[in-house]
Structures are given as C-alpha cells and as structure tokens.
Amino acid sequence: MTAYLPHPWEQRLLMWAEQAQQTTAQATVYAQDQQRLLRAFDACAAVTRHNSRTFYLASTFLPRSKRDAARALYALCRVSDNIVDHARGDAAAELEAWRGRVRTPHPTDDPVLIAWADTRERFNIPPGYVDQLIDGVERDLSQNRYQTFSELTEYAYGVASTVGLMAMHIIGFHGEEAVPYAVRLGVALQMTNILRDVAEDWRAGRVYLPQEELSEFGLTEQDIADGRVSDRWRRFMRFQIQRNRSLYEESWRGLELLDTDGRFAIAAAGKLYYAILRDIEQHDFDVFSRRAYVGTVGKLARLPRIWRLSRRRVSQT
Hints:
There is one protein chain. The chain has helices at residues 10-21, 34-51, 53-59, 64-85, 91-102, 111-122, 127-138, 149-171, 178-196, 198-203, 211-216, 221-226, 231-251, 260-282, 296-316. It is mostly helical. The mean pLDDT is 93.
C-alpha cells in the first residue's frame, strides 16, 4: 500500500485524531432491557431514514449489529446538529446539557442515548471523538465565515471526520494507518455538503466557502446572495469540485484497512456522495435554485460498480 502523504492542513487534524483516540471511558457493564434496546435502535433507524436516504441505504450493507450501531451514530449526530439549527432557547446551554447526557453511563429516557450507550461500549469508541463532534457543532454558534480552506478543514474535522473515525471503530479496522484516511474522507464528505448547500447555508446566515478563494476568483458574497451563476462562479466551482474529487480519490485507499464486511457500506456512502459533484456540474453549477442530489435509480445503478471497487480493494490486501 502506498505510504500516506498528509497535506499541510492535515497535520493539526491528525494530531486531534490521535488525542481523541487515546481517550478512554470508565469501564461499565451496560445491561439494557433488550426490548427497550431494540426499540431504541428502531428509533435511530427511523431518524436515519428520514434525514439521510444515502446513509440509510449504505448502512443496509452492514451486518445487523454494525448497521444498528451506524444508525445510532447517525442519530446522535443529527440530534446534536438540530440543537444548534433548531434551538428553542439558549443553544449553547442546550448543547452543553446534551453533552452531559451523552456521557451518561446508563441512560433510560432517550432512545438515541440508549442506542448510543450500547454502541459506544460494544465497539469501544473513544469518548474524545464525541466531545470533538459536539465542539465542532458548537462552532456554528460563534463562527459563520472561514477565511481559508485550511481553517475550514478544522470545522470539517469536527463535524464530519469525527463521525468517520467513530464509524471506523464500528466497522473495524486494521492498524492506526486507517486513521488519516478516515480524517480525509470526512473532510471530503463535508466539502460536498458545503458545495451542495450554498443557498441553504446563506439563508441561515452562514458562508462556509473560503473567503480567500472567493476573492481569488473575483467573487463576493453578493454573488451568493443574488444566486448568480457567472463565468467566475463556474471557474470557482470547478476548482472546488476538482479538489473535492481529489480528496475522495486519495481516501479510497483506506478501504483496504477496514474489516471486509464493512467495506462495501463505506464505499457506497463515499461514492454516492461523490456523485453529487457530477450532478452539480450537470446543472451548470447552479446550487442556488436547486439542491443537487442523486435519485434512487441513480444510486441503485451505481451499486454494482461500487461493489466491484470494494472487492478490488480486498484482493489487493
């Protein structure tokens, strides 16, 4: 396998990943009522299906225990994100209260927390990753602009790479060499979100596109406000998409470091998100009047090729 060569901006992210990886939770025996636990996992599956058809589809290719755990992880992330996006009062206080509840050893009153408590113990997930995730989500309360791509990747690490690192523990992995690939794939996935959701984020008062790069292409926030697809915007988006694609391509090599029964699911999640970039291109980089997506037929049509990719990685190990 080719040696991993980190980008300069990755150095800080890898340090954070290593710090979180070394955290441990107090050992407990979590004997949960099985019927309540099954209902909790069903609730997490419903949250996943409602909010992310792509993640729901990809997770169906996992064995049952890993599938349930992956959907518990997704539900945990969704609730954390919703606290910021749909706060009824003091979002910072609500988020800090949620952080405390997530740490509860034996929750009994919240299906997401019940499923998550079982997941974190069963798969020995370092608690530092959850703290970093909540820190990343909390950043939306105080920062809504990013000057450089390097600064933006720190945000992407918090809200996406941490999720990939926790998912890696659920899937199973071989050696610490897998960590940088999970970090990079998380950044790639979040950048796809950012490129897809430019208009939605603008309405929420946020611009995640690096200010420095907007300026380099002769763009201002007024171009975003106007929803103007100009030649400058097209050049800017081509640059963003090309870099985003490169991050994905560099991440695929990490598949071979995952347990074999989880490679197809991770490949599916990554490749189906990767396809969103093509949809943006096919609609002339217009992310203002429509939300880029890949329909069900398009997703299903891609699965055989994705399966071959995941198997090819297996044969190379």
